[in-house]
């Protein structure tokens, strides 16, 4: 029995890979742009929404990244950052997300004379506000943040130090992002070595547009805890004519070490990493029991949500509630919060949530069978 839309929406979800500047509400972009006189490519909410998704559907990571020029432009003041972060938390909670790690690059929000510390403070204030509003609406969520350094820039050590400085105030990790080709992770080795000395967590965008060398560097040179996307690990997986599978040494290492893959199906299609949801490597990687997680990446650019990603996977691979629970537990096992907090979310929120959905489904099935029996001619 395929999951219903209502079941998918109600299912507890955990999100590890979501960009703050990739998840704005179109209405918010319009309002903030009007306040600062920023020219947008569309003048109404629906047209702007379509522009973002169409522009992102280029099949090129580089072209995809140009859409952020407009969202970043309207996120240059404390008020704007607070608003965007608060709305992000509310939107995720309304979609059934119970824990999220949202990432952003503080260095991209300095055009309005803010300091790096002021950017972080505003974003954290916004997320606390959003959490409060979500709890009041009956959809509690916890949002942690990852600070991202842009891989084409030279501020990664500075941003890494910023992440460590705020790790008691909501920041749980570090990341590098941006175009992979020509900007390997090893350019930022100083930042990663610093983070390891500070016992800090970090993920690295790798294996999205670039292939296995990017993944190898992220893991073996830089020591990444997780792989941002990592979808190209499939290039090291051979499916033989008889259906058997042989893992290359890097793929075997990733699976054996339980290195989490922050897969983003819809986004991966837009950037050319996969041809369709049905062709996405997530199906094979999940079957081979890699540490697969499901993520949104950029909800505005992909026109997506966690519920939509789950629904697409259900249609393509026949996934049901137990599969979504597995993805969700995988994500919590891989989160950058302390072990006891991860365990509490798994045992007190995720497992009870899926158990309740299963019990409701069983009850509905029994009730439907009873109704059918009463309507049967034999029961007359």
Automatic annotation (TrEMBL):
**Cofactor(s) required for function per UniProt:** Zn(2+)
Q: Biological process (GO) annotations?
A: adenosine catabolic process; hypoxanthine salvage; inosine biosynthetic process; nucleotide metabolic process; purine ribonucleoside monophosphate biosynthetic process
- Residue sites binding Zn(2+) per the record: 17, 19, 205, 297
**Record EC number:** 3.5.4.4
Free-text remark on how the cofactor is bound: Binds 1 zinc ion per subunit.
**Pfam families for this protein:** A_deaminase
Which SUPFAM superfamilies does this entry report, sorted A to Z? Metallo-dependent hydrolases (SSF51556)
Q: Which family does it belong to?
A: Belongs to the metallo-dependent hydrolases superfamily. Adenosine and AMP deaminases family. Adenosine deaminase subfamily.
Instruction: Kindly provide the name given to this protein in its UniProt entry.
Output: Adenosine deaminase
Q: Which organism is it from?
A: Jiangella rhizosphaerae
């Amino acid at each position: 029995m395929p999951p219903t839309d209502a079941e998918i929406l109600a299912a507890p979800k955990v999100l590890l890979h979501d960009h703050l500047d990739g998840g704005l509400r179109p209405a918010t972009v319009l309002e903030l742009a009007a306040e600062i006189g920023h020219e947008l490519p569309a003048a109404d909410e629906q047209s702007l929404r379509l522009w973002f998704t169409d522009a992102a559907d280029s099949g090129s990571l580089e072209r995809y990244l140009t859409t952020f020029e407009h969202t970043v432009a309207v996120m240059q003041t404390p008020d704007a950052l607070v608003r965007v972060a608060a709305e992000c938390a509310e939107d995720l909670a309304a979609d059934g997300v119970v824990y999220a790690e949202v990432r952003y690059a503080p260095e991209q929000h300095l055009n309005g004379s803010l300091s790096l510390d002021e950017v972080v403070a505003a974003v954290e204030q916004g997320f606390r506000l959003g959490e409060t509003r979500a709890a009041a609406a009956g959809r509690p969520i916890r949002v942690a943040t990852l600070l991202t350094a842009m891989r084409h820039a030279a501020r990664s050590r500075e941003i890494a130090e910023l992440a460590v400085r705020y790790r008691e105030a909501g920041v749980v990790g570090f990341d590098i992002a941006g175009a992979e080709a020509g900007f390997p992770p090893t350019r930022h080795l100083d930042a990663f070595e610093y983070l390891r000395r500070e016992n800090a967590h970090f993920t690295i965008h790798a294996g999205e547009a670039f292939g296995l060398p990017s993944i190898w560097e992220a893991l073996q040179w830089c020591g990444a805890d997780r792989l941002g996307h990592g979808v190209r690990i499939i290039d090291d997986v051979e499916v033989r004519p008889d259906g058997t599978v042989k893992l290359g040494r890097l793929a075997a290492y990733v699976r054996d070490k339980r290195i989490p893959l922050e897969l983003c199906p819809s986004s991966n299609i837009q950037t050319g990493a996969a041809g369709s949801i049905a062709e996405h490597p997530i199906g094979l990687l999940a079957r081979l029991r890699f540490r697969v997680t499901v993520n949104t990446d950029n909800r505005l650019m992909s026109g997506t949500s966690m519920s939509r990603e789950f629904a697409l996977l259900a249609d393509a691979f026949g996934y049901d509630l137990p599969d979504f629970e597995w993805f969700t537990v995988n994500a919590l096992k891989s989160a950058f919060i302390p072990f006891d907090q991860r365990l509490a979310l798994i045992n007190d929120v995720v497992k009870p949530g899926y158990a309740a959905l299963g019990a409701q489904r069983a009850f509905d099935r029994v009730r439907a069978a009873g109704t059918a029996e009463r309507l049967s001619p034999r029961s007359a």
